[in-house]
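User: Could you walk me through two proteins back to back? I'd like the raw sequence and the C-alpha cells for each, with a short line separating them so I can tell where one ends and the next begins.

Assistant: Of course. Protein one, sequence then structure:
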Amino acid sequence: PSIMSTRYYKLDGVDMSSTLEIVGGIEGGGTHSKLVLITPNGEIISRALGGPTNVYLTGIEGAARTIAEMVVKGKELAGLSAGPLAALGLSLSGMEVQEERESLNQMLKFLYPQLAAQYWICNDAMGALYTASEKGGIIEIAGTGSVSWLVNPAGKRYRCGGWGHHIGDEGSGYYIAKRALTRIFRLSECNGVDKIPYDISFAKDAMLHYFKTATQDGILVPVYKEFNKANIAGFCKILAQGATDGDEFCKSLFTKAGEMLGSMIVGLLRQAKDDPTALPDDGSPVRILCVGSVLEKSFDLLKDGYVGALTKSTPSLSSFELVRLKDTAAIGAAATAAAQSGIELALDRSLLVEVFFTYPPDLLTAIV
C-alpha cells in the first residue's frame, strides 16, 4: 500500500543512531492505518499512513506486511537505524480475539524479527481510550457501527454493544439508516396502521435519490444483492442534514439513536455497579471519550435522547463530560506498549483531548 509521511525534528537528547529508545504505535482500520514513532520525552519524530490492517480484511500475514512497511518507512524518515523498536503498540479494528492477537504477534516476530523487541496488541477502542488516559475510563464509538467500553484502572473491562449489524450497532450510522428505511417502507405500505406525527416525504425522496432508484422496490438491490454496510450507513449523512434543516422525521431518528447510545453507557454502569474503582470518587464529572462520526459530528442531533438516557435511567449520572481525541489513537497504543515494556513516556494527555459537551451545561464554566 502507498504510504505518506511527515517528520518532526525536535530530537534533542535522543540517539538517532539507535532504535532502543524509540517506541511506535499504529492505529489500524479497515481502509487505512496511522503510525507514530515517539521518543521517551514524548516527541513524535515520525508519522506514516498505510493501508488496511484489519485481519478480517487482509488476513494475519497481510496485516503484518502492512505494519512492517509502515514501521520501516517511519524509521527511515526519522533517520533511525534498521534495528528493532523498543516496543510497538498495535490498536487494530477487529482485533477482539486473544488467539488472533497471539497469531499476529507470532507472525510479526517470525517474518520481521528486526521490527520491534516487544508488541502490545489490542482493538481500536483500547488505543483510543489509552490516548485519552493511562488509567482507562469510558469510551463510546459510533460511526458505521457502535460499541462502548468501561475499563477500570486495573484494566478490567466491561462492554456493551459492538456485536455487528445483525444483532447490535445500536445508535450507529447503519442503525439510523436502517431504521429510516424500515419506517419509510412500513409507513408507505401501512399508512394509518402505524401512526406517527411526521411527514416522511423528505426521507423517502432522499432514499430514492441516495440509492439511485426511481421506485421503492429498487432499494432491494443495494440492501440485499449488493449489500455494503458502509454504503447503507452513508445514508445517515443525508438524514443528518434533514434533521439539521428541521425535518421532524429525521430529528426523531437521531433522538432515538441518542437514547440507544446513552442506554449503552447505562448498561456499562450497571455491569460495574459493584466495582468501586470504575468511576471517579473525587466528585469530578464522569468523562466519556466519544469516537466516530455519528457522535463527534452529529451530537447536537443526538443530545436530547442521549442526555435523557443518562440522567433518567438507573443508575444515572448527575454530571458528565464528553471529549474527543485531537490526535491519533496510535499515541495511546505506543504509550501502553512502552509501559508494558517498562518504559515511561513523558506524555501530557490533557493536550490530546478536548471537551465538546458537559452536563449540566454550566459545568464547563465551573471547570474553566
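----
Protein two, same layout:
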Amino acid sequence: FILGFILPHHISFHHKEEKRRRTRRSMGDQKHLLPITLGRLASHLNSLSNKDKVIKIVQYTAQAIQHYAFDDFKTDPRARRINTLFWSLVLHRKLFRYMNSLSDLVTIHRLVNQLKSHDSSETTTDKVDTALLLAKTCTFFVFWLLDNAVYLSMGKIVDFDGSSSAMLSFKLWLFANVINLIRNVRRYVKEKRDEKISGEEKSLDLELTISKDIADIVVALGFSKMAGPHISWGQIGIAGVLSAVLHLYLKWPRGRMKRSTLRVKHE
C-alpha cells in the first residue's frame, strides 16, 4: 500500500524534473535576438538586401500616405510629389535587385543536384520541401529576368514598352510567394507535429515568416491586378511596409543566451 502511494508520486516528481531539465537545455541551445547596438545596426544595414528593405519601407509608406492622406492625389501638389517619390524608389529598388537571377541560378543548380543525388550525405531528407523551394526559386529566376527588362525600359536605356513584361513579372511574383507560403506553412505544421521546436522564440520566427509571405501576396495581388478593386493602393502600402519590417526583424543577428540568465528568467 505504501509503495503504491509513494512510487507514483516519486515517478511523477522525477518526470517533472527531467522535463524541466530538457526545457532548460533546449532554451540554452536556442538562439535569441541580440541587443541593439550601433555596431550591430551598422553591420545589419550594410547588407544590400537589408538596405533595400529600408528603402522599401519609405516607398510603401509614401504609397499609403498618398492613398489615405489625400482625397485627390492627381491635383494636390503634395500628393504628386509623394507619387513622384514612390515611383522613383520603385526604379531605384530595381537597380538594387539587378542580376539577382545569377544567385537564383546557383541555387537552382544546387537543388537539382540534391534531388538527383544518390549519395546519402548530399540527398535531402525532405524531397517535397526541396521541390517547393526549387519551384519558388525557378519562378523568381524568371521574375528577376523580367524585372531587369522592366528596369531597362523604365530607365529609357532600351526603347521598348515594358508594361506587359511588368504585368507578367507581378503574376510570377505572386505565384512564387504562394509557393513560399505553402512551404513555410508545411514546415511549421511538420515541426510542431514532430516537436522539433522547443522554444517560443523559434516558433514566433516561423509565424512571422508566414505573416511576411501573406503581406507579400497582398502586394503582389495588388500590383498584378488579380484581386481587382478589392485591394486598394493604401492596403498595398501597409502590406509592403509590414513585409519590409518583418524581413529586417527576422534578419537581425541571433546569439545563444547564457544558462545563468535562463535560470533566473525561467525558474
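Residues 22-29, 259-267 have pLDDT under 50 and may be disordered.

Let me know if you want the two compared in more detail.
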